[in-house]
Design the sequence.
């Protein structure tokens, strides 16, 4: 199967004359038609420029839906995290002061230190789980938007939100499994290095060889982790667009990346650099506004006298700077996450166009007639000459037509045909001449 089947060849001669050197047509010659593009993505094998432009086009057309989902997830995430932190602080409130402000010259008692450690570890695990769940929802929303953008069909916040929530368990499973599989080499290297380092430090003569061992173990482990992460990078898109489970999504991603690892790794690296650069450019004005807006107010306040609290102007300036930095950081992070995910999802679309003829399948789906919305209603009083079999689906109770349709007159019973009887054979007349009578 050729990649550009049905789209023409750049070296074929046209009405204006034969093609010039290198297959390019002369002035006025024939040029191949552009690839079909029902949405924001041209239906052809995508190069780096096509992926970049299609990502920006999808963001420009559907930024409201993506921003709405991200803001909703961010609001819920901050609310849940605040509640968890409040519960944790309330649970160990009586132990906070003995641990962080113990009597002079004394260490915190174990009865106070243990609840603080347990609460801190539990809170960290719960906050990590909430953050990972929020990331899964956002990751599921990007393929849901791209799936409609490729077809050129509009979408809404509600449809995107429902699709993202429905596919969040599968996407969460792919993220967890990808992290465990890709991070396993690094964890194995650390598991080998930490005991060696502990033994080396605990000895009488520490050896610097333990420090040299760390990069020796981490460099190959990091290379294997990058290789595995790239192989499994298309799994979230598979989980959403193909309604696949985590295991199936990981296997499909590995199959789609196989043979094109370097190309996908290179394009993904370029996309990440573009996202980080633009995110930094978005965040920089907010930081400058917050910093320069704080300077005049702090200059007017003068020096803070000993024993007095901070001036009101300084508090306002600090709050303004903090708000600007937070807003800039939030906007930049939203852009970086959305752009990176859409970029990776477009690589999934590209691989399917190259290997599975997805472009022709999309065009066939768009050319197919839309299914009827429902059964065609029939009039309450159909004409008398309508055949009886066309009305069978309109009756809810065939034994009681007047109950199902009270406005319809009760049908008159058809006369039962009389049984046919065989006609009696007619007796032929005696036309023979009289026979002579015996004497």
Sequence:
């Amino acid at each position: 199967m050729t990649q550009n089947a049905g789209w023409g060849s750049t070296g074929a001669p046209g009405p204006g004359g034969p093609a010039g050197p290198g297959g390019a047509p002369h002035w006025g010659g024939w040029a191949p038609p552009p690839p079909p593009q029902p949405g924001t993505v041209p239906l052809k094998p995508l190069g780096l420029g096509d992926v970049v432009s299609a990502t920006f086009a999808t963001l420009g057309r559907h930024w409201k839906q993506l921003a709405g989902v991200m803001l909703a997830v961010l609001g819920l995430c901050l609310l849940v995290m605040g509640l968890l932190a409040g519960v944790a602080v309330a649970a160990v409130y009586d132990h906070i002061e003995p641990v962080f402000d113990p009597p002079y010259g004394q260490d915190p008692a174990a009865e106070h230190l243990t609840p603080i450690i347990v609460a801190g570890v539990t809170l960290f695990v719960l906050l990590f789980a909430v953050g990972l769940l929020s990331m899964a929802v956002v990751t599921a929303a990007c393929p849901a938007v791209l799936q409609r953008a490729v077809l050129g069909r509009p979408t809404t916040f509600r449809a995107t939100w429902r699709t993202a929530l429905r596919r969040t368990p599968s996407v969460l499973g792919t993220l967890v499994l990808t992290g465990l599989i890709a991070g396993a080499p690094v964890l194995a290297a650390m598991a080998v290095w930490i005991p060696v380092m502990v033994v080396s430090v605990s000895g009488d003569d520490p050896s610097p060889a333990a420090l040299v061992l760390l990069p020796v173990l981490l460099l190959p482990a990091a290379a294997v982790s990058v290789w595995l992460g790239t192989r499994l990078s298309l799994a979230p898109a598979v989980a959403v667009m193909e309604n696949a489970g985590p295991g199936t999504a990981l296997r499909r991603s590995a199959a789609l990346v196989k043979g094109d690892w370097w190309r996908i790794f290179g394009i993904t690296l370029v996309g990440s650099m573009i996202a980080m650069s633009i995110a930094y450019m978005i965040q920089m004005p907010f930081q400058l506004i917050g910093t320069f807006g704080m300077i005049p107010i702090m200059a007017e306040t003068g020096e803070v006298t000993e024993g007095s609290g901070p001036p009101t102007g300084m508090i306002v300036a600090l709050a303004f700077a903090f708000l600007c930095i937070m807003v800039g950081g939030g906007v930049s992070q939203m852009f970086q996450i959305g752009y990176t995910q859409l970029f990776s999802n477009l690589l999934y679309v590209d691989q399917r166009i190259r290997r599975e003829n997805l472009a022709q399948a999309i065009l066939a789906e768009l050319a197919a007639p839309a299914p009827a919305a429902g059964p065609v209603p029939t009039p309450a009083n159909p004409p008398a000459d309508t055949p009886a079999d066309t009305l069978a689906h309109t009756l809810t109770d065939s034994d009681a037509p007047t109950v199902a349709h009270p406005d319809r007159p009760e049908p008159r019973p058809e006369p039962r045909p009389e049984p046919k009887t065989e006609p009696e054979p007619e007796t032929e007349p005696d036309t023979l001449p009289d026979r002579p009578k015996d004497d």
